[in-house]
Specification:
Sulfate adenylyltransferase, homodimer, 5-stranded parallel beta sheet, 16 helices, 7-stranded mixed beta sheet, 2 domains, about 425 residues, Rossmann fold
């Protein structure tokens, strides 16, 4: 059996990174182009585009693509696509930069000032941001929902057109073993003899529940191996930074999984917290990475209480047949049950709430910050030890580094005050 | 979603049991017909035929059907069928009974002398029993393999033709809550709102490993409920009788499963120990019972070491697409691991053999008979208590009652001496 095809009609990975002399020449050319400044999310999207994770996209969406995916879950050619991948610019910057339809522009990360790519601006257009948020995020709550906040904070105009990616950013250096392109994960799977790979999306350290999800995906008999695929782009306040999480994943894999059945990778996207729509996006690019299944648990890619706990599962049922080659593995709410003496879910455990270890994120962070003991059934000791160290030393600075650089101070304040 | 269709081109359950006046009339008519005496397996097959479990079969196979399923895994109309369902008669009895092609005959259980049905003998034929065994059982070892032993012990001639079933036997009385026809299990599933039911085939008491198989089938996200479906026809020496096992299943379900997700049923077939071929038979009739999935673990329906541990899984891959509406859920060797602190399998546990609780059937029986302690991770206490009581009081007589009534004394002796 072969790995699933890359997404889209051509079934071929789009590699938008230039290399060698072509790259050097394009960097030189970029110096003379008008500059467009990108938010951290736009910068992370260039990396996803560049490596082919967003195949079949060849750049930032034009209006028809954007509207198609927002309102109809598909690109103009009919390919399923669930979330906008767009580049915005404020009216002021548009005027001062002199960018017009037909211009080539240099794409600069606003935070670092680094060049990440170039783009031919085929279209400059406006969208109804509020309508887009209501469709994509099912809410227009810019104060509470980080995805909506980012959308509402972005410039009034979008620039659509094909991209040439020129800069790998920091990820390869930070995660030399785990940062990989879709072509690389596919090669890894083939080397391992896997054709049926299940992806586990994670933005958290993996506790017993997460381990359980991956393990029973492995038990399903449908799977040759599991790909722990961790997002390491910017997260929201309180999420644990990628470097720390990768140590946790390593500790878990080294001690608690058969090595031959598991692989770890990281990818540079920034979470949108889009719940069901983001679950579909996760599925699309996992197919590009060569995975046949994606574990979709409770409140996948959700935040606050904007989505029903299983909305991210049921949205897959609404796709037309053939929209994806990847299939979701849908899994219920899991916990450790002292009476079952095992991990379990509402499908399998007949006992009471009091018999179960359910630790909320808030309880978890409080316990960690205060040095309180967590039940051993919550997480493996090697993982908890790493987190304990992190919380004792790193939290205050890390939160600043990893959240919402592109939001207004008022928005940031409200989010940090906990109005989820 | 609807339950899977009954097997066969008509997608309709065959109910061969007569009822009411028609049944009375047929019983009266049978009194005047030549008698054909059936082995316990043939008698159990009439029950399976009668209730529609062997849909689309309408009686004992004729030669084309028998040869088709033995050598090509299909009936003459192309319907997948994996094992013979035949009625045999010795040359002597054939001569003395006066049965001819075209005769109607009364079908009598040899052990009890009771009438179970009538049949129109459309064809009298001979088969190459050894060739059949080599195809179906992958061995011709009549001394070691109980299925081969039964085949080789049967009469030289087969009688093929449609059956009218007239007698329910003892099962309804012994298992009033659990003995059900395919139409009844389907009604039960529909009442529960289940359309995606996973069947668990069992001829043993359920230990932690079995519980784990069912639980992670429930976790798979593909399943609305699990149907524990226990064989209660004659077993081989040393297997635990149905009445005792049903108590074990009840104890397990009552204490360790959410009631809304699980159902228990029993069926009267006699094990053939046919490994891969029998796994397919289990799949065919589970589809008739309304199930969408069948759990197929290690050495499903096997005996001794005639089959590779996963042959019963891979045989499903050889079926032509559409041969079955039911799909297997294939599962690896499972055990409790003290280091994982959970049930696990070779897919999920990285630890050593010494860390695992693996109790063989022999060790289990010895521990039970000697009153030795079994590790609590092997079975749930409520189940082990029932088995302890059984082994202390019942074994010697039960073995006699439940094995090989139809084998020659020499064969029985050899089998009982432990040559599996």
């Amino acid at each position: 059996m072969a790995l699933p095809n890359p997404h889209g009609p051509e079934k071929k990975l789009m590699l938008l990174f230039l290399e060698g002399a072509a790259r050097e020449a394009e960097i030189a050319r970029a110096a003379g182009l008008p500059k467009v400044y990108m938010t951290s999310m736009e910068t992370s999207d260039i990396l996803m585009l560049g490596m082919g994770a967003f195949t079949p996209l060849r750049g930032f969406m034009n209006k028809a693509e954007c509207q198609g995916c927002v309102f109809d879950l598909k690109l103009p050619d009919g390919t399923m696509w669930p979330m906008p991948v767009t580049l915005s610019i404020s009216a002021d910057e548009l005027a001062s930069s002199g960018v017009k339809e037909g211009s080539d522009v240099a794409l600069i990360d606003r935070e670092s000032g680094e060049l990440y790519g170039t783009m031919t601006v085929e279209e400059i257009y406006q969208i109804d941001k509020l309508a887009q948020c209501k469709e994509v995020y099912k809410t227009d709550d810019a104060e509470g929902h980080p995805g909506v906040a980012k959308t509402m904070a972005q410039g009034e105009h979008n620039l659509g057109g094909p991209v040439k990616a020129l800069n790998e950013g920091k990820y390869g250096a930070i995660y030399p073993k785990y940062y990989m392109y879709p072509a690389q994960s596919r090669a890894l799977f083939e080397e391992k003899g896997w054709s049926r790979v299940v992806a586990f999306q994670t933005r958290n350290p993996m506790h017993r529940s997460h381990e359980y999800l991956v393990k029973f995906a492995l038990e399903s008999g449908n799977v040759d191996g599991a790909f722990i695929h961790a997002i390491v782009g910017a997260l929201k306040a309180g999420d644990i930074p990628g470097e720390t999480r990768v140590k946790c994943y390593e500790a878990l894999i080294d001690n608690w999984f058969p090595k031959q059945n598991i692989a770890l990778g990281v990818y540079p996207m920034e979470m949108r917290y889009g719940g069901p729509r983001e679950a579909l996006l996760h599925a699309v690019f996992r197919q590009n990475f060569g995975c046949k299944y994606l574990i979709v648990g409770r409140d996948h890619a959700g935040v606050g209480s904007y989505y029903g706990p299983f909305d991210a599962q049921t949205i897959f049922d609404e796709l037309r047949p053939g929209a994806l080659e990847l299939a979701p593995m849908k899994i219920n709410w899991t916990f450790y049950c002292y009476k079952c003496e095992s991990m379990a879910s509402l499908m399998t455990c007949p006992h009471e709430k009091e018999d179960r270890v359910i630790v909320s994120g808030t309880q978890f962070r409080r316990a960690m910050q205060e040095g309180a003991e967590l039940p051993k059934e919550f997480g493996r000791p090697e993982v908890l030890a790493i987190l304990e160290e992190y919380y004792q030393t790193a939290e205050k600075v890390e939160i600043k580094k990893h959240a919402y650089e592109d939001l207004t101070p008022e928005m940031l304040k409200k989010i940090q005050e906990g109005k989820k």
